[in-house]
């Protein structure tokens, strides 16, 4: 693990005047608090902050940011959602980390409230520190649910909206950031601003996928739809990648399914993993024998939501939607589960790994968006010739397509410039001391893409140099910089992303 920063009697790292503010009692400097905020899910970097703020209100956060803004040498401030980044993105070296989940204990407009109006229909106003699992449970009490999800629900609303928030629903509804109507945001100047498509729209689009660079989200207004009760959940196996992707692309182009994903199963990894233990024990032997035979197989995964009213017709309807697909005969598997169990499918795998001490291990993940035109080259060059050949990883590998037109180009999020693109998730876990081997493999994959002319974009990006960030944002770099100058001119917010030079230091405040 690389350690950035030094040990920190905060009194020497932060301006003394901070102690006289009324938030002082909610600034924690004890070693437990510091330890928590200096680590994340990735377990690969450690960055030591000077203090952690456990805000009891939105005003606590505006006070903190305004104070830093008015210092002659401002200190950095990072909102921390659930700390599920993998490379220190929610950390703040020598600065203050704001634990956004603390707000959930108080109310103050940061809870979960369901409403309706004639122009939006049903929506939920949700605090930035709320976990998606809690949003699901609260909205289902009204028979409603958000339409766009992540595979794992123990992430915060502010954390996923700062990236994009993608899952098998994205082909249909777009990412989570395409389903936000309005937000309350505290800018890097400490201003508390409500923004939407029509009000302070520059800030609105900047913050969506903005990697925490422009403001701290304290409330998001999220689109809701009727929540179904149950889902039909189907997986089909392929050994031919072109048949697999052709079928995925066909399915995202027709109406009817609610979720489409896909994954790669290699003979070195078991068919089930922490992301979901879908395949019953009785089927595992023949799936393993199939993957042994081919080395690599591909698993198309789809879901159709339904309610009791369609009990009698749902199977026929699903059969119609899946007609003509080219999966391997005899390798279709079906499940019928509750909507909640489906959306929360990763949790049981997490709990199992936690009980074995295998959850809190390094996660050298790489997530990419790959243009459809390059997906065959990616399969040959990466899945077959790097990952399978090197045989270093047993983590889940995701691959599924989505439509560019479900993403608004005004948002900060970066995607490939092609109508259809694939999301690739290489969700490696490693032992404590060998994550660098997988990190190195990730670098090799990125180099391969560069050399092969595959115009992949990193999702949940991590770069070391300004040049790499400029390449990443490409034509959006100028606007990204302008927005930074407008909303966080002193570069206070989310320094752990390492996009702009972070501001550090001690000095007096004006
Ligand atoms: C097991 C697991 C499964 C995952 N599955 C998916 C998936 O299916 N789809 C997907 O899209 N992602 C997925 N992710 C990635 C996840 O969306 C990101 O890591 C996300 O940033 C985590 O949210 P968090 O609340 O932990 O944010 P953190 O890691 O705490 O923060 C992430 C970034 O957002 C900033 N930030 C946090 N809160 C706020 C706020 N309120 N306002 C402004 N900025 C803020 C932070 O400063 C930081 O820069 C997964 C991650 C894990 C660990």
Automatic annotation (TrEMBL):
GO terms for molecular function: cytokinin dehydrogenase activity; FAD binding. InterPro entries: Cytok_DH_C_sf, Cytokinin_DH_FAD/cytokin-bd, FAD-bd_PCMH, FAD-bd_PCMH-like_sf, FAD-bd_PCMH_sub1, FAD-bd_PCMH_sub2, FAD-linked_Oxase-like_C, FAD-linked_Oxidoreductases_BP. It comes from the Eukaryota. Its cofactor is FAD. It catalyses: N(6)-dimethylallyladenine + A + H2O = 3-methyl-2-butenal + adenine + AH2. The keyword ATP-binding does not apply. Pfam families: Cytokin-bind, FAD_binding_4. One of its GO terms (biological process) is cytokinin metabolic process. Keywords: FAD, Flavoprotein, Oxidoreductase. Residues 45-227 form the FAD-binding PCMH-type domain. Its EC number is 1.5.99.12. Belongs to the oxygen-dependent FAD-linked oxidoreductase family. This is cytokinin dehydrogenase. It comes from Nyssa sinensis.
